[in-house]
Amino acid sequence: MPKTRRVVFSFDERSLDSLKNITEQGHFASMADSVRESLQISRALQVQAGQGYTEVVVRNPETNEERVVVIPSLQPSSKG
Predict the structure, then answer these.
(1) What average pLDDT does this structure show over 65-75?
(2) Do 34 and 28 contact (CB within 8 A), yes or no?
(3) Are 42 and 50 within 8 A, CB to CB?
(4) What are phi and psi of 56, to 5 degrees?
(5) How far apart are CA 70 and CA 5, in angstroms?
(6) How confident is the model at residue 56 (pLDDT cuts 50, 70, 90)?
(7) What DSSP string runs through 21-52?
(8) Which of 12, 23, 30, 40 is buried most, with the most CB atoms less than 10 Å from its CB?
């Protein structure tokens, strides 16, 4: 089994509510599981952004309607 570390986070009330909602809606066993999966998703998106891909397209499989989701942290920095 991989070595684990205990980490403590402090959340404001709004962020904690958001984490609880994500945990429930995602059917995660715990808030730690939802944070772990969120980190994996964020890392995968960062890798893609590093290769120049900065738009995420989502599709409704019932209607085939597509939307582009803009994730601000993936957008190229305007700092020069």
Answers:
(1) 89
(2) yes
(3) no
(4) -110, 125
(5) 33
(6) very high
(7) HHHHHTT-SSHHHHHHHHHHHHHHHHHHHHTT
(8) 23
The two counts, helices (H) then strands (E), for the chain are 2, 2
Report the pLDDT value the prediction gives residue 3, as an integer from 0 to 100.
85
Structural contact between residues 68 and 56, judged by C-beta atoms closer than 8 angstroms:
yes
Confirm if 67 and 57 have CB atoms less than 8 A apart.
Answer: yes
Which residues 6+ apart lie within 8 Å of 17 measured at CB?
none
CB atoms within 10 A of CB 35: 16
Question: ∠47-75-27 over CA atoms, to 5°?
Answer: 60
- The pLDDT value recorded for residue 2 is 76
Does position 58 have pLDDT exceeding 70, yes or no? yes
* Chain centre distance of CA 53: 16
pTM of the entire predicted model: 0.75
